[in-house]
Amino acid sequence: xxxxxxxxxxxxxxxxxxxxxxxxxxxxxxxxxxxxxxxxxxxxxxxxxxxxxxxxxxxxxxxxxxxxxxxxxxxxxxxxxxxxxxxxxxxxxxxxxxxxxxxxxxxxxxxxxxxxxxxxxxxxxxxxxxxxxxxxxxxxxxxxxxxxxxxxxxxxxxxxxxxxxxxxxxxxxxxxxxxxxxxxxxxxxxxxxxxxxxxxxxxxxxxxxxxxxxxxxxxxxxxxxxxxxxxxxxxxxxxxxxxxxxxxxxxxxxxxxxxxxxxxxxxxxxxxxxxxxxxxxxxxxxxxxxxxxxxxxxxxxxxxxxxxxxxxxxxxxxxxxxxxxxxxxxxxxxxxxxxxxxxxxxxxxxxxxxxxxxxxxxxxxxxxxxxxxxxxxxxxxxxxxxxxxxxxxxxxx
Length: 397
Prior knowledge:
single chain; alpha/beta; Arc Repressor Mutant, subunit A; Rossmann fold; 6-stranded parallel sheet; 14 helices; 39% helix; globular; disordered N terminus
């Protein structure tokens, strides 16, 4: 079967003419449909499922793997999404190929180990994120980079994301957390933007857990955080140098450790620029609930009464999208992300980019230490990568 004349990048695959049909294709488990409401990007979901299907023991090194067109049809996704999923597998060494060459299995996704195959397949690291199911698509890459770092650090474990709206209310959190830690497959936890009562629960439970973010005083849990005060000082000063004089800082409820650090950096920048005193500072800060309709109503009211607010510093993409909806296209929005954005951003956007995958990998190594019995509470603080403008606009008067 000669290859056709058209070759789609490096993913068209041809086969050995002398091979029997049964030897040509990789026989893998059925695909799982992608979840389009998930915060994980579609290409990431497809790549993870393909990796799962490669781990069923039926694939052999050197066998022909799926083409992009086959992946596209199996998962009902776009050509680009299927291409990115296969590119991720190739980058990680699970498949190999190139332009004009077949893409074949390079190695098993999860190598078998004697007497431990069953155990490895059921050991799960759970990333807990206190939010509802309706997550903005802009958060997809933001979350996926941390999960990718976890997976790289813990290759023999399954990494799953729990969008836990139950954790937003302390009354509901207890029963939900009890059910999680009593599930035998759940062996370790990564706490993303967790309220203080969730951290205290894991401290008392004594199960392996690492906080992605800062920890309140008196809580003895290892954590991986970022230099948030300096970062938001630099981010606010960046907006000031672009000519903005009416800037608001927006955080989400419930408040978590780290929010106060961000506010301190924001206040320092305004005072250093000579554009706010102590009275003005209180008018430049607001905390909104993670309910879109309620938050939008509050943000619109602030914009209308804010005497010419031109820019907003937000804690994350979700609040940034709500702020833009409330302030209109003339509002300049700045916020944090954990990796480079894959999609085009609207004019008037400034990003503060963190090394999300590196932070996730460090969290995974701390969890591995705990699982191996060497639990030493501590912390590691990362600096941001850079501040990047995306077609920033001039501030309006």
